[in-house]
Design goal:
Helix content is 29%, strand content 22%. With 579 residues, it is α+β, with helices and mostly antiparallel strands. It has 2 domains: 3-45 and 70-219, Phosphoenolpyruvate Carboxykinase, domain 1, CATH 3.40.449; 224-293 and 375-578, Phosphoenolpyruvate Carboxykinase, domain 3. α15 runs antiparallel to α16. Bound molecules: sulfoacetic acid and manganese (II) ion. Residues 225, 246, 274 line the site of manganese (II) ion.
Length: 579
């Protein structure tokens, strides 16, 4: 895209929104410090106890605490291209609707122009973006989450083919006038009325997933809601990418510290915790880069046990959003093992049983602060994938781990992923919803076509990763988790790796390859043989019902569903009947 086009768009945006001034961000430390100072002064940031060096608290508007999927739209010309997985508006209508809200909305405010790069600045797989915003909070967060400023601008000026533009304003934060609009055909995002996370940091879900997924389809790659981690064992590192819905533990898994007995032999390296851009390498393998430069992670539940790496990286140079405070102004959240809440996330005295921190409270922190951050994450080519893992939060049915028979079956497995909802999006928590590849809220085109695109990689790649599905959340009849999770998930990753290296065989079942009982090491765990059997039990009736539910879900995508899926379902049904 020619730089003139971008400059003109900035001018037009200023004409539309009438800011008091326009500032092009250079991404420097001085600029960041200045933004922080401005926010401390106007009260939109609060300083914390000195023990938390350069840490700040931002309290968002209480009606603006999570992504709002109802108000998120994908607007290609043809409704069918958005698919039943997206809200759609005709692009002209969508522009008219939001432009009316943008009109003069920045009066008296500064309009910031943020050039940014998703991915290592010198990587051929990195992509450029420009976000316009009137929120200093967004500027500060974008500086942590992306490679922002001069270098990105230089790359844009060199005439990068595709630059994604995003216009954002908090406007008056009225939930009724909140819209997050995507125009994949114009590589354009318009977001108004929210200052929160995925609604406002446009590099993240809007660009790196919704717009990027549609670019990826055109260009033969994948933009996925996946963590990337390296698992080092005896000098060899295997990389896995894993998709889980929001707030299901991607960050914890990406930063896993092996349990004591494994610590000598295994080390987990963090490449990314939320998004993976995956391309076919010259060697026919799939390679992944993390387009982000920071973590925007869920705070509640983070502690020495669940994620020691995260805990140690967020005690300095971190922006907290919607956590509680102790009496001496330390950040506090449910699950924190020290201190007690004095002021809740809204800034009111904490009392009663209501959570003190918002369940979707977040930290924003640079990746480089993570003790397990992988040097490979800064490499140009990314990392080669040995395995892809799909995970959901299901209290029943899905086993602890199962391996797909082949790529087609794995894609089907990903497409049938379902999970109980969390606080990361507004709406009811704990209801099972289908969330194919954990991409339901983020796939920027028709999900049926997306599945076909996944399948088509078989024609492009010669050495595809193996595909697995995991479920850390299976419960017994009384609702107690059967599996300890967290660091002990390494025991499952060990099996995944052993399978990738052809070192163990597995049990062939209708739903895929399950581990032999002795191949998941439970030594030292409070997991009895009976519990282990429960973790892998195949509830035949449950699976038959699941197939019926899946078929009815797929039917909502009509002719877009790949024919290969019907064949998978048929095979599973027949094998269940005969089992
Ligand atoms: O608010 S975000 O979309 O960035 C976080 C998430 O839902 O994964
Ligand atoms: Mn996410």
């Amino acid at each position: 895209m020619h730089f003139n086009t971008i400059e003109n768009w900035v001018k037009e945006s200023a004409q539309l929104t009438s800011p008091a001034s326009v500032k092009w961000c250079d991404g420097s430390q001085q600029e960041y410090d200045h933004i922080i100072a401005t926010m401390l002064k106007d009260g939109s940031l609060l300083s914390l106890n000195d023990k938390y060096r350069n840490c700040y608290l931002h309290r968002s508007h209480p009606s603006d605490v999570a992504r709002t999927e109802q108000q998120t739209f994908v607007c290609p010309r043809d409704r069918d291209d958005a698919g039943p997985n997206n809200n759609w508006l005709d692009p002209q209508q969508a522009h008219a609707k939001v432009d009316a809200l943008f009109r003069n909305c920045m009066q008296g405010r500064t309009m910031y122009v943020i050039p940014y790069c998703m991915g290592p600045i010198d990587s051929p797989y990195a992509r450029l973006g420009m976000e316009i915003t009137d929120s200093p909070y967004v500027v500060a967060n974008m500086r942590i989450m992306t490679r922002m400023g001069e270098q990105a601008l230089a790359r844009i000026k060199r005439g990068e083919a595709e630059v994604v533009r995003g216009l954002h304003s908090v406007a008056d934060l009225d939930p009724q006038k909140r819209f997050i609009m995507h125009f994949p055909e114009e590589l354009l995002i318009k977001s108004v009325g929210s200052g929160y996370g995925g609604n406002a940091l446009l590099g993240k879900k809007c660009h790196a997933l919704r717009i990027a997924s549609s670019q990826a389809r055109r260009q033969g790659w994948l933009a996925e809601h996946m963590l990337i981690a390296g698992i080092e064992h005896r000098g060899e590192t295997h990389y896995v990418a894993a998709a889980f819905p929001s707030a299901c533990g991607k960050t914890n898994l990406a930063m896993l510290i092996p349990p004591d007995k494994y610590r000598q032999d295994y080390k987990v390296w963090t490449v990314g915790d939320d998004i993976a851009w995956i391309h076919v390498g010259d060697d026919g393998r799939l390679w992944a880069i993390n387009p982000e430069a920071g973590f925007f992670g869920v705070v509640p539940g983070t502690n020495e046990h669940s994620n020691p790496n995260a805990l140690s990286m967020i005690d300095h140079d971190t922006i907290y959003t919607n956590v509680a405070l102790t009496a001496d102004k330390e950040p506090w959240w449910e699950g924190k093992l020290s201190g007690k809440p004095h002021t809740n996330w809204k800034g009111e005295p904490h009392r009663g049983d209501a959570p003190a921190a918002h369940p979707n409270a977040r930290f924003t922190v640079a990746s480089k602060q993570c003790p397990s951050y992988s040097p490979a994450a800064e490499g140009k080519q990314g990392v080669p994938l040995s395995a892809i893992i799909f995970g959901g939060r299901r209290s029943t049915l899905n086993p602890l781990v199962v391996e797909a028979f082949d790529w087609s079956h794995g894609v089907y497995m990903g497409a049938t992923l379902s999970s109980e909802t969390t606080a990361a999006a507004t709406g009811k928590v704990g209801v099972v919803r289908r969330d194919p590849m954990a991409m339901l809220p983020f796939c920027g085109y028709n999900m049926g076509d997306y599945w076909s695109h996944w399948l088509s990689l078989q024609q492009q790649a010669t050495q595809l990763p193996r595909i697995f599905q995991v479920n850390w959340f299976r419960c017994d009849d009384s609702g107690k988790f059967l599996w300890p999770g967290f660091g002990d998930n390494l025991r499952v990753l060990q099996w995944v790796l052993n399978r990738c290296r052809n070192e163990v065989d597995a049990v062939n079942t209708p739903i895929g390859y399950l581990p032999n009982a002795t191949d998941i090491d439970c030594e030292g765990l409070d997991v009895s043989d009976a519990t282990k059997r429960e973790l892998f039990a195949i509830d035949r009736q449950g699976w038959q019902d699941e197939l019926t539910a899946i078929a009815s879900y797929f039917s909502t995508f009509g002719t877009h569903v790949p024919p290969a899926f019907a064949a998978q379902a048929q095979r599973i049904r027949t094998q269940l009947d005969n089992s």
